[in-house]
Recover the amino acids of this structure.
């Protein structure tokens, strides 16, 4: 990864990225349509480690955390996907 702040030598510039998972809300609902939105949201929630989906407020919290008190973090990809990337084993029939 190429970090712009290493080129100019300014240690106050930090470069990070927040990678959210499914974010519930109007934008995806309008883009997918109500039926598809409900189905996709349910699938994401069922297969994420935390069994839910992100809200805009969740992602805003991560961004604020990066802005406010983490002056030692740079060059990182912060995955905020409620554990979706971890995956969950399929449910076992009982």
């Amino acid at each position: 990864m190429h970090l712009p702040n290493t080129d100019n030598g300014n240690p106050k510039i930090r470069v990070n990225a927040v990678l959210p998972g499914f974010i519930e809300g109007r934008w995806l609902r309008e883009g997918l349509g109500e039926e598809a939105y409900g189905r996709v949201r349910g699938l994401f929630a069922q297969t994420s480690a935390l069994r839910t989906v992100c809200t805009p407020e969740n992602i805003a919290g991560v961004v604020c955390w990066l802005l406010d008190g983490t002056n030692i973090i740079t060059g990182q990809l912060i995955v905020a996907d409620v554990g979706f990337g971890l995956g969950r084993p399929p449910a076992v029939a009982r």
About this structure: The first strand starts at residue 17 and ends at 20. The mean pLDDT is 85. The chain has one domain: 4-86.
